[in-house]
Amino acid sequence: MIIKKCSGCGIELQFEDKNKEGYVPEEKFITEDNLLCQRCFKIKNYGENLVNNFSREDYLKEVNECVKKSDIILPIFDIIDFEGSFTEEILDYLRDYRSIILINKIDLLPDFIHPTEISNWVKDRLAEEDIVPDDIAFISAKNKYGVNGIIRKIKNIFHNKKVKATVLGVSNVGKSSVINLLLGNNKITTSKYSGTTLKSINNKIPNSEITIIDTPGLIPDGRISDLISVENGLKLVPAGEISRKTFKLEENQVFMFDVFCRFKILGNKLLESGSKPIFSAYASKSVKFHVAREERVEALLNGNYFEILQGNEKEKYFQNKFVTHEVEIEENEELVIAGLGWINVKRGPLKVQLEVPKNVKVIVRPSIFKNRK
Ligand SMILES: Nc1nc2c(ncn2[C@@H]2O[C@H](COP(=O)(O)OP(=O)(O)OP(=O)(O)O)[C@@H](O)[C@H]2O)c(=O)[nH]1
Ligand SMILES: [Mg+2]
Description:
It comes from Leptotrichia mesophila. This is Ribosome biogenesis GTPase YqeH. This protein has 3 domains: about 1-50, no CATH class; about 55-220, P-loop containing nucleotide triphosphate hydrolases (Rossmann fold); about 230-365, no CATH class. The chain is about 25% helix and about 25% strand. It is built from 11 helices and 16 strands. The protein has helices spanning about 25-30, 40-45, 55-70, 90-95, 115-130, 145-160, 175-185, 230-235, 270, 295-300, 310-320; strands at about 70-80, 100-105, 135-140, 165-170, 200-205, 210-215, 245-250, 255, 260-265, 280-285, 290-295, 320-330, 335, 340-345, 350-355, 360-365. Strand 2 (about 100-105), helix 5 and strand 3 form a beta-alpha-beta unit. The longest helix has 14 residues, at about 115-130. The radius of gyration is 22 Å and the shape is globular. It binds guanosine-5'-triphosphate and magnesium ion (MG). Guanosine-5'-triphosphate binds near residues 171, 190 and 195.
């Protein structure tokens, strides 16, 4: 029996069962090569979100097998959801293998930021996790920025030797989009939904000795965007430049990150001296920021001011167990809520009481952008 694989998602093709993954009609299977399965055809042509039966463990096993056979790994991180891009497995691979880290989606950074400005920030954040890659590339698959540099960087390390390079990362960071650019075609299926690539896909980069391997996205923990419906989760993922607003907060006021989480100030030395803390909030444009008096919060959560979550879905979201974190953030630090956004403290320190659903990853990190006047 001949084995053929879908060139869009890597799944083994079959013609026996229309309702199972990898289906193609029998005559196509027999007579054609470079086939697309029915699922990839629907994603590519109709933008459908088709669920699959693969589990977190299936994906991990597939990625593990590819990594073991690689000369170098190319982990991709999303610059806008940097903390949401890590999983323990990815950090372990990075400690064990040679790597070039690809920082993707830099088109979503505010206009005033140049990638070189955040390069030290990225290096320091990785060093905190004991990671020292061979190189780092700042790229945008959307704008085709920096992608040719990847090939140059691989050649710098391996010269003209044969190389197997595995691209890996959490779902939706743009692995397949980057590989398509390296190949100069749109062979691999990409989509705005998570879980598009199902199995590994090997391709040779033209005019090189490099075999580039795409892998299915690993599933991360702790992102707010994964606690709501897929369609609404996408609204929390910035599609254009991220939105930024600056606030001063009184002691009895609450800052609301839409309905998703909120915090109040727990007293501040600067407040006592009369000057209020200042911070900027960053998130996707669909997320509404709001400052309210504490007694108004309940009514705002129940009313129609915030628009992303409605009806049953909002009720369901509030059924999550919420926990309270007390966090102190220094000037030039920021508080990140994975899968939602962050606040950057310009005048502090700022001590807050944050309410978020349990298991959502909350961290304090050095600011990604230098403060500007
Ligand atoms: N703004 C922006 N969007 C990007 C960029 N690269 C990829 N995307 C978008 O991110 C989404 C996911 O892209 P894919 O290439 O399918 O991501 P993936 O990592 O292969 O995803 P899985 O196969 O599901 O793990 C798509 O909507 C892409 O258009 C980028 O540089 N900038
Ligand atoms: Mg993919």
